[in-house]
Design brief:
Blueprint: E1 3-6, E2 11-15, H1 26-32, E3 37-41, H2 59-72, E4 78-83, H3 86-96, E5 101-107, E6 123-125, E7 128-134, E8 137-138, E9 141-142, E10 146-150, H4 152-157
Parallel strand pairs: 2-3, 2-4, 4-5
Antiparallel strand pairs: 1-3, 6-7, 7-10, 8-9
Helix pairs in contact: 2-3
Length: 158
């Protein structure tokens, strides 16, 4: 497992999305490294990490990797950041290990089949309420069909 562990202070574990590598977090590392311990790794079959020793890469395997890496590095509590496909593993890890999580940040996460045309009522998506706006105006232009926007009240809480 290829990883980088640098800095001092509260730990932050950064998980990159598919087709990425730990290098996508270089700017974050530079900004946070003086105040936080920044841990980032190449997920299995990405970057410089090889295939998973278990021979599979699924959410359960990724949870095990996060757990084993943080234990190996002596990290008991940490902030967890997951983007894109890694957001699923980050959310699952936080749900399964709440005592280890100081905070969770998910960005650009999509899960499962999402068919906007079939959704006619608010839906719950990782704890954030979305609403459908039919025939909405965006930038002064009228748009037909469904648009999904994070409610303003929820944006303030996230």
């Amino acid at each position: 497992m290829h990883y980088v562990d640098r800095g001092h202070g509260p730990a932050i574990v950064l998980l990159h999305g598919s087709f990425g590598s730990l290098h996508m977090w270089n700017d974050w590392d530079r900004e946070l490294g003086s105040h936080y311990r920044v841990i980032r790794f190449d997920r299995p079959r990405m970057g410089l990490s090889g295939a998973s020793p278990a021979g599979r890469t699924d959410t359960e395997q990724e949870l095990q990797i996060i757990d084993e890496l943080t234990r190996h590095l002596g990290v008991e509590r940490f902030f967890l950041v997951g983007t894109s496909s890694a957001g699923v593993a980050a959310a699952a890890y936080a749900a399964d290990h709440p005592q280890q999580i100081r905070g969770l940040l998910l960005a650009n996460v999509a899960v499962g089949a999402f068919k906007p045309a079939t959704v006619q009522r608010p839906l719950l998506f990782f704890g954030c309420c979305w609403r459908s706006i039919r025939g909405s105006r965006v930038g002064g232009q009228r748009h037909s069909g469904n648009r999904y926007w994070l409610r303003t009240s929820m944006r303030r809480q996230v």
